[in-house]
Amino acid sequence: MLFAELSHGKSPAERVILYPSEWNERKESQESMTTNLETSMRLLQRAAKRYSVQLLPITPILEGGVASLMAYPLAGLFSLTRFDRLMYLRPSGLILDSSHLDDLFTIPMNTSLATLSVGSGRVRMPPSIILLKPSMERYHGFAASLSAGEYSEESFLQGTPRIGDNPPITGGESGRLLATTSALQLEGEDFNATSFFASTSYVQIQDPAMPGPEFDAPRDAFLRARPSGFQARGAWEDVYEKYRMKRMDICGLDLEPAGFAEDGDTEGVLFSTAMVEETV
After folding, report:
1. Could you tell me if 131 and 114 are in contact, meaning their C-beta atoms sit under 8 angstroms apart?
2. In angstroms, how far is CA 178 from the centroid of its own chain?
3. pTM (2 decimals)?
4. pLDDT tens across 160-175, in order?
């Protein structure tokens, strides 16, 4: 879905999806192919054909950890030294305007890792946008700490420099790179939904009371999770509806039952997606 918007916006950045190399082996042997894995492989091929996405199979850093998310930590992105710079957008979300995201590939970068999150100080949320310069030296360092059981995503991202300044959500023509649906809860009556959609680059859909935009949450839970402000509530509902429609139109997928988030078959849904600037 993100790559469809990048294609529609004519983003010049290379597009990459990383996925477990084990999937190729299972597809060739036709052994242990689950419904979700078949769907994931189909969507990978669709992304490659329709949106010029590069598909890069990867092996887990930890042996025997194929099924673990920690077998594919974000620090593994440092190993992609064929690229000068790489941007990771934390799912799930919507790209509303890719042009300002493309600009991040042109600004000076004096550090190998920078992030952007909503909030500040003690209430800053986990980064939603990660910008990094691949380096095998840094990759081997993180791989060693992972093998020793000393790595965590929180420590990897803690204290990283911030990507520029994030203007207010009502920043008008100045725009903003990032917004989250949970932050809409804090907006007052002066919030303008039209300005929000016109000036925001990426919206991460993340609400503590919701299982995620991929799931069909009970109606009462949906109503309780909405912001109280009239315009903020309308923007929040529109984001969820736009996501649902894009999921159907682009991926051909309906929303999953809410219970799937806790006890369903999640195999075959592990993707790491990125925009990259290719090495010249």
Report:
1. yes
2. 12
3. 0.85
4. 888 864 433 333 345 6
